[in-house]
Design brief:
With about 325 residues, the chain is α/β, with parallel strands linked by helices. The protein contains 10 helices and 15 strands. It has helices at about 45-50, 120-140, 155-165, 180-185, 200-210, 225-230, 255-260, 270-275, 275-295, 310-315, and strands at about 5-10, 20-25, 35-45, 70-75, 90, 100-105, 110, 145-150, 170-175, 190-195, 215-220, 235-240, 265, 300-305, 325-329. Helix 6 (about 225-230) links the parallel strand 11 (about 215-220) and strand 12 (about 235-240). The mean pLDDT is about 95. GO terms for molecular function: mRNA 3'-UTR AU-rich region binding; NADPH binding; quinone reductase (NADPH) activity. Keywords: NADP, Oxidoreductase. This is NADPH2:quinone reductase.
Length: about 325
């Protein structure tokens, strides 16, 4: 008998109203795939970018949505080894289709979830945690005495980053949009917090660093902050641009990097930092170890039923949420 599942799809790019829940046939997993029944689904800004079609390589429409989840394996395709029916797994990446009750997934993206970690916590942490892992361990390997500026420090990624970096002896200057979020950022390890609604973050960073600037700026905001982020760097510092929440960054003359202090700029993607299976597994082990040690704590989690995915998107875009968002089928 043919099985069916419910999943969100969209047929045009746009605001959250383009998302529609549909009943889809649940097909047998192909060779190299697994089938999972989902327990918890992570919501990330990359989902909003996909929905809006802001990437140059847009998803072909109609498309599913969602890059992160935790579930239990219910079926195996041919040529799958190291996994078994009943295993609980987490995943980041693969074809976007996480906003669903059940789904098929390339086995290469499945990570076994340790029994001492809950599905909800892992779904809230795995994408954001692996993002922080590659940004702070491999994109730039930070350690004792380094100073960074992290925009949106009270958000899901910023919260994890502030905790993890503080445990490594890194000084974090975090930017936030409210007094409540400032308190959260301080509690999560930020050495200094700047409310950009009340202060000019570029001027404040220069005051905090006595004019020296920071070693690295992590900027997921984009258009509204990019130029001033460059101005916050020390000579030969690095700007890591990993999102465009406020819009795309304008084209940059390469000569400007020299004029501003022989700067480095990178636009990394988690896809390239987890493409190698061994590196992907090691990054997950680093994250799980950080959770167990207390360096990364369970975030504040806002939970929505899967059917309310559009509302979750709207709340995230309007910055009504803090910490991590998950959907539950």
């Amino acid at each position: 008998m043919t099985q069916a599942t419910s999943a969100f799809r969209f047929s045009e790019y746009g605001d959250a109203s383009v998302l529609n829940m549909e009943s889809l046939e649940l097909v047998t997993p192909a060779a190299g795939e697994i089938q999972i029944e989902q327990d918890a689904i992570g919501v990330n800004f990359i989902d909003i970018y996909h929905r809006k079609g802001v990437f140059a390589a847009q998803l072909p429409l109609p498309a599913g949505l969602g890059m992160e989840g935790v579930g239990t394996i219910t079926a195996l395709g041919e040529d799958v080894s190291g996994l078994a029916i009943g295993d609980r797994v987490a995943y980041v990446g693969g074809p976007p289709n996480a906003y669903s009750q059940h789904r098929n997934l390339p086995a290469a993206r499945a990570l076994k979830v340790p029994s001492d970690l809950s599905s909800e916590m892992v779904a809230a942490l795995i994408f954001k945690g692996l993002t922080v892992e590659y940004l702070t361990h491999r994109c730039c390997n930070l350690g004792e005495g380094d100073v960074v500026l992290w925009h949106a420090a009270a958000g899901g990624v910023g919260t994890i980053a502030s905790q993890w970096l503080a445990s490594k002896g890194v000084s974090v200057i975090g930017t936030v949009s409210s007094a409540i979020k400032a308190d959260m950022a301080k509690a999560n390890g930020c050495t200094h917090v700047i409310n950009y609604k009340e202060e000019d973050f570029e001027e404040r960073v220069k005051e905090i660093t006595n004019g020296k600037g920071v070693d690295v700026v992590y900027d997921s905001v984009g258009a509204d902050t990019f130029t001033k982020s460059m101005n916050c760097l020390r000579p030969r510092g690095t700007l890591v641009s990993f999102g465009e929440a406020s819009g795309l960054v304008d084209a940059l003359p390469v000569s400007m990097l020299g004029a501003k202090g022989s700067l480095y700029i990178t636009r990394p993607s988690i896809a390239h930092y987890t493409a190698d299976r061994g590196e992907y597994e090691q990054a997950a082990e680093n994250l799980f170890a950080a959770i167990r040690s207390g360096a990364v704590k369970s975030p504040e989690i806002t939970t929505y039923p899967l059917v309310d995915a559009a509302r979750a998107h709207t709340d995230m875009e309007e910055r009504r949420t803090t910490g991590s968002i998950i959907l539950q089928p």
